[in-house]
Amino acid sequence: MDSVSILLILVAPILTVTVFDSTQQESLGMINWIMVGIPFVAIYLASGSIYELAYKMPRSQAQYVPLLSLILIWPLLIASESVEQCTVSGVCDDLGMSIFFATAIPLIISFGLPILHPRTASD
User: Fold this and answer.
1) Which residues form the domain of 19?
2) Residue 25 and residue 43: Cα distance in Å, rounded?
C-alpha cells in the first residue's frame, strides 16, 4: 500500500472537476468529490490483494489475474453511475449509499481473499 498513490487517487476527482468543469464543483461540493475517490482507493487495495493472492499460490504463472480482477468492474460502475447521476440530473440523495456499496465490495474482497488461501493469511 503506497500512501502517495492513495493520496493521488483521493485528489484526482477534485483536480478533474477543477480543470474541466467549474460549475459542477459548486453543485456537488468538495466533500462529496473527496467521497468519490474513496471507492477507487478500495478498488486499488482489492486489486493489490488479488495480485498478491495469485503471486503466492503454487504455479503462480498458471492463473490469469485479469480474469480475477473483473469483479472490480462492478464497484467502478456503481461509483461512476452515481457521480454521473448526481452531476447531470442534480439528484445527489443516494450518493452516500452508492459510495458505501462501491467501497464495501472491494474492501470485502481485499480483506476476504487472504482467508481463501492459508499461505497468504499467515503473512
Assistant:
1) 3-121
2) 24
- Take residue 31 and report the three cell numbers written for it: 466533500
Render pLDDT for 20-63 as a digit per residue (tens, 0 to 9): 665 655 556 677 777 888 888 898 888 888 888 777 777 666 66
Query: Measured between alpha carbons, how far is 32 from 79 in angstroms, rounded to an integer?
Result: 12
16 contacts 40 by C-beta, under 8 angstroms: no
Phi, psi (degrees; rounded to nearest 5) at 92: -115, 25
pLDDT in tens, 62-76: 666 777 788 888 988
Number of domains comprising the chain: 1
Using alpha carbons, list the distances in angstroms from residue 4 to 7, 24, 103: 5, 26, 19
**Are the CB atoms for 121 and 111 separated by under 8 Å?**
no
What's the predicted TM-score (pTM) here? 0.77
User: How far is Cα 80 from Cα 87, in angstroms, rounded to an integer?
Assistant: 11
